[in-house]
Write a structure and sequence with these properties.
The protein is an alpha+beta fold. The chain contains 14 helices and 14 strands.
């Protein structure tokens, strides 16, 4: 058995960022569909989130890698042309429609009552209503409020969700329906065979073990270098069986073991991982970007402690409500609390903070460049400092 490769911390960072799409030069002309498809091929999924403080999070990873583009182009690929579809992957995500067979194991687990127990309860209690809702979706795409009998309800767990909304959610979890989006990110449900092509739905269903192995390899490709827990988290696979699949992939020689300087656990390398001599990045990242969504990984790679403070009481927040990290070169060098004022057409800078150990002047210039680009991307005319938090706010 060969010895694990030994990687410096800097080399591991460059491998990770290259795998995430930061090795490729940015387009010199208008960003088009080919560029967005390339980003998807590198990331394999885009996490969704409904909070539009700056811009909805699924638009941000392509921006961070490509620069400003028209966000509506992503919607056209996903929701009009159905090249990608919504699935429960790393939380709610967009994934290529070609990956649908790899996610069927989730739906079978739901059907068996192993997951989404609250949703399954309605299906058990009133299967006739579930069938009725599905029949209405077959008549044409609809939102929960469009159901002929949405059945309003209330309760501590569900809030004000209707039975119809719960039924549609259940049908989504078991793969009978899919989701498109109307204006304002509103959900519209349609039967899955009008979203995923027939030739893909007709493909054989992999076993759960086969699907997990393939998804873990995709995670390894997107991360380049990663721990076992990083790989399992990418598609939020069940931990115990997924860890067994990782061990098989190592045994089969599909993943290589590595020791990374400063990491407190073994690492795994994808065979296609590359380490460019440098990473030429200067951009702000979404809180839900794969570079930082695994907080432990952010500490291991960048020494970057990160927490979303949306749900933290204002008086207890350290950095702010919606904070975006600044990637400069192969390091995360700062973070900024931002908000898009769409009515005024201004990107508001409420706070700006540097990370220890980086040249202050470089970080300030990096922020100015990244804020200029983000301002264009979110459709504003300018950015403006409106807060006083952080050691960089005066310089900005």
């Amino acid at each position: 058995m060969s010895r694990p490769a030994r990687l410096s911390a800097a080399r591991a960072r460059r491998i990770a960022l290259a795998a995430q799409g930061f090795k490729s030069p940015r387009p010199t002309r208008r960003v088009d569909r080919r560029h967005l498809r390339r980003v998807m091929s590198e990331l394999n999924l885009l996490q969704l989130d409904s909070v539009p403080v700056v811009i909805r999070t699924q638009y941000m990873p392509p921006f961070s890698r490509l620069g400003p583009y028209r966000p509506g182009l992503l919607d056209e690929i996903a929701y009009r042309d159905d090249e990608w579809f919504e699935a429960w992957s790393h939380e709610a995500s967009l994934v290529p429609v070609s990956d649908e067979p790899l996610l069927r194991w989730q739906k079978e687990r739901a059907r068996r009552g192993e997951t989404w127990g609250q949703l399954a309860a309605l299906a058990r209690q009133d299967p006739g209503y579930i069938d009725e809702v599905l029949e209405q979706v077959r008549e044409g795409p609809l939102a929960p409020k469009d159901l002929r009998e949405p059945r309003r309800r209330s309760g501590e767990w569900w809030g004000d969700r209707s039975d119809g909304s719960i039924a549609l959610d259940w049908l989504f979890r078991i793969g009978e329906v899919g989701i498109r989006r109307r204006a304002g990110f509103a959900k519209e449900f349609d039967v899955l065979d009008r979203i995923v092509p027939e030739e893909i739905l007709a493909l054989p269903t992999p076993t759960e073990e086969q699907a997990h192995r393939e998804l873990l390899m995709r995670a390894a490709s997107s991360f380049g270098v990663a721990t076992v827990s990083d790989l399992v988290d990418y598609y939020r696979l069940p931990k115990v069986p997924a860890k067994a699949r990782v061990a098989e992939l190592v045994e089969d020689g599909l993943l290589a073991e590595a020791d990374v300087e400063g990491w407190d656990r073994p690492a795994l390398l994808h065979p296609s991982a590359v380490a460019p001599r440098s990473i030429d990045a200067c951009t702000l990242l979404s809180p839900f970007d794969p570079v930082v969504w695994c907080r432990e990984r952010g500490v291991r790679l960048f020494g970057f402690e990160y927490k979303i403070e949306i749900y933290t009481p204002a008086a207890k927040r350290i950095y702010g409500y919606y904070v975006l990290p600044l990637l400069l070169g192969d390091q995360i060098v700062g973070r900024a609390d931002l908000k898009t004022d769409r009515q005024a057409g201004v990107l508001l800078v409420k706070g700006a903070f540097s990370e220890p150990g980086h040249d202050r002047g470089d970080v300030v210039e990096g922020f100015r460049h990244a804020l200029d680009e983000l301002t264009v991307f979110v459709g504003c005319g300018s950015w403006e400092v409106v807060g006083s938090a952080g050691d960089l706010i005066g310089a900005l």
